[in-house]
Amino acid sequence: MLSVRNLSKIYGSGCGLCLELTGPGVGSNICPKCHSIVACARIDLDVYPGEIVGIVGESGSGKSTLIKLLHFDQEPTSGYAYVQGFEDGQVDMFAVSNQKKRWLRNHQLGIVYQNPNAGLNMEFSCGGNIADKLIAADWYNYTRIRSRATELMQKTELPVQRMDEPPKRFSGGMQQRVQIAKALANNPPLLLLDEVTTGLDVSVQAQVLRLIRQIQSTLQIAMVVVSHDFAVIRMLTERTLVMRNGRVVESGLTDQVMEDPHHPYTQLLINSML
Amino acid sequence: MSAILQVKDLSKVFVLHSVEGKRIVGCQQVGFTVRAGEFVGITGNSGGGKTTILKCLYRTYLPSSGKILFDSALFGKIDLVNSTERDIIAIRKHEISYVAQFLQVLPQMTALEVVVEALTERGLSYEHSHIQASSILRHFQLPGNLWDILPHTFSGGEKLRLNLARAMVWRPRLLLLDEPTASLDEQSKMPVRDMIKDLKEAGTAMVGVFHDLSFMKDVVDRHFQMHQGQLREAGIA
Amino acid sequence: MTSYSYNYGFLDEQTKKEIRRKLLQAVAIPGYQVPYGSREMPIARGWGTGGLQITLSIIGKQDTLKVIDQGCDFSVNACNLRNFIAATTGNTVTTDTAEASIVQTRHRIPEEAMREDQILVFQVPYPEILRWVEPSERETRRMHAERDYGKLWVFLYEDIVRWGEITLSYRYPVLVNQRYAMDPSPIPRHDVPKLHQAETLFLFGAGREKRLYAVPPYTEVVPLQFEDYHFTIENFGGQPCRSCGSTSSYLNEVYDGETGERYFSCSDTSHCAKNSRGAIRHE
Questions:
Q1: Distance CA C111, CA C97 (A)
Q2: Model's pTM, two decimal places?
Q3: How many CA atoms does the CB half-sphere of B128 hold within 13 Å?
Q4: Which residue of C has its CA nearest to A138?
């Protein structure tokens, strides 16, 4: 349902040799010639309906950039992506107008950021944050917006009586759930999750992971889960990509990547697990 | 009976990059066949490569060479060694089940939910799943007061029974068992044996790795011994 | 007035030309804010320089001018602007809406219905309606370009959550020609419906913020409202104006410090006087 081909993102001027002179082979993503940073290079990714794909790697490996590119928060330097629900998957989603990108973002995608400040307006109420996404999909009936927000808050195990409070008064785990409720508002077929449990207490982390699993099994939403934490990846995903220096160095079934890693870097990552 | 699984010349070599590309042989030139309703038992010393074979069959390990021909209801005859990840995921969901030595579950899921999820994941309604899950937990004599408790508080034997229940409840075509009775007392082994017999009658093919020879003798049809990565037939049980 | 060394209408002809060109652009894209080079005027920015520059750029010798401030012809601001325009053009001025060909206004639309041959010039303090919800100019421009008004709607949603109704009393957001969200300037809600399918050309000038925009005659101007929470105009509890008895005009609440009495009177003073004389035809 999502196909990404040859996706690259270079921060800086770029010199044409950036992709050749960087990568896990040389252990750096900074081009020695022009000092541009190669955040993502020639990424291929396929996501099928209803599945959860994991992307794992250390800080700076380019995994969050990849998510941001897919959500149009950043513009790719080159590459293509096709979404099944948009023009029958025939048109590159990076090549269309901003208005169409916004439609895609509001109807086909949901995102949950590591930092709730990036995904929520902390001045608006919790309900207002959910309303934001609904209004973007042309909901203009106050009562209907409220009842949909109520439904989403129940689904994400949030206290409905706190709907009119701003999320800045909520705990970290609750803020992540508000983000999830907002992301689910328009029933998107694809959800992007960027380090959603990082920084949460272990018990809260478990609750959020469980919620994500529940959503996946009841709503059959496909997800891309980015994490540096193999335990999270193992719990949520069936397939995993390992990234380093902006490249995918290994990909496979999650249990296979973890128990029978082939790339030296993946072996190092696994051996470094607690 | 038709062969559900044919393993030919299966080898697995691990390359450890952190120790200058050191090669470790998991198993070598392994070959055997499992028919519908048949139980193949593998014994051998620790580190002998028994689990390696099971993990290769489940594709948790990517085999280095050889063939694993599986008679799939979804795809027909398919070589698991070079099947796509998508096909493996589908086969794991509908045809091959694996009972690992250690129970791995999502935190904050109760024992009953773990088994129910194994069925709902495969498209069964919640009500139906609930009935079947309850029935298998009862069969394995998991005390009722544990059903609504988080499994990480369970004893080894209780965890194992839950693990078996989860893997067996949806009646896979091929069942892979890694030390399925390791931490069970004699009394708890009975329902496991009954369940295995039950599944065999229904046509499930099974490959099991055992330490527990006495238990194995009751259920297996053929017995192989693993020694230094190589397999040889130990005779019909 | 040729004895003054200033050009007719104070501004030089090049400047007027620029402003008129920008006004044409504004009329062509109803509700769109056109940037322009706002000039230094002999009054401080924030005191109506945007409206003033528009008036001075479009005024001709045959025009009759009226200037009001919150409905009143005789506030200091209205008097000063009127005197200045009169002094630099020598044009006729009036307080009667019906007689004027150009009306410059701060925060009101005259009660008397305006005609096709008249122009209403608004002084606008903050032209960007999205400033309620977004501090970045780059971002508000993107939002307008993509017709991305979600945040503004959430702002209204939040208002209903807090107060049970939309409480915005002035600068009520409107959607012009189904395309641009527009700040109607700080007119009361009472005046907002008058913008819709009007006979008159409305020109808006924000001198400090250097923006011009327009609503041409017969343009759709709709207040943002939820399907189940409608835009409403102010309600004075059925109280009439104490001077003229009108119940349909926008009223100011007046508190008499000596008698302690509270009463209502028309905000549009010339209309009120006319009404008292019986010079307004009621339909």
A1: 9
A2: 0.85
A3: 10
A4: C150
pLDDT of residue A249: 94
Tokens of C122: 């608004």
Q: How many residues does chain B have?
A: 237
Give the amino acid at A249.
V
CA distances from A187 to A125, A223, B46 (A): 21, 13, 50
Whether B85 and A252 lie within 8 Å, measured CB to CB:
yes
Residue C97 in tokens: 């809406």
Residue C109 has pLDDT above 90, yes or no: yes
Q: Where are the domains of chain B?
A: 3-236
If we measure between CA atoms, which residue out of B224, B231, C246, C150 comes closest to residue A128?
A: C150
- Is residue B214 helix, strand or coil? helix
pLDDT at B45: 83
- Residue-number span of the structural domain to which A140 is assigned: 120-187
**Mean pLDDT confidence for B47-64:** 92
Q: Are strands A2-11 and A37-47 parallel, antiparallel or unpaired?
A: antiparallel
CB contact under 8 A, C142 and A98: yes
pLDDT band, residue A205 (cuts 50/70/90) = confident
CATH 3.40.50.11310 corresponds to the domain C13-127+182-220: yes
Q: Write the pLDDT tens digit of every residue in A115-165.
A: 999 999 998 999 999 999 999 999 999 999 999 999 999 989 999 999 999
Q: Is residue A95 part of a domain?
A: no
Q: Among positive and negative, which fits the CA dihedral A76, A79, A83, A87?
A: positive
Residue C283 pLDDT > 80: no
* Domain ranges for chain C: 13-127+182-220, 235-278
* Complex ipTM: 0.88
Q: How far is A77 from chain C (nearest CA, A)?
A: 21
CB B34 within 8 A of CB B205: yes
**Residue B109 identity (one-letter amino acid):** M
Selection from A25, A64, A18, A57 nearest residue A41 by Cα: A18
Which residue carries 């896979």 as its tokens? B172
In chain A, the number of structural domains is 1
Mutate to test the interface with C, among A124, A165, A182 (most CBs of C within 10 A): A124
| C 156-175 → A contacts, CB under 8 A | 157-158, 160-162
Least confident of A150-164, B5-19, B97-111, C255-269: B97-111
CA atoms within 13 A on the CB side of C20: 12
Answer yes or no: is A28 within a domain.
no
* Residue C44 CB neighbours (<10 A): 10
pLDDT at B107 over 80: no
Q: Contact at 8 Å (CB) between C130 and C146?
A: no
Structure tokens at B178: 């890694």
Place of tokens 């000092």: A35
pLDDT tens across C5-41, in order?
789 999 999 999 999 999 999 999 999 999 999 999 9
Strands A52-56 and A239-244: parallel
Q: Which fold has domain B3-236?
A: Rossmann fold (3.40.50)
Report the half-sphere exposure of C141 (CA within 13 A, side-chain side). 7
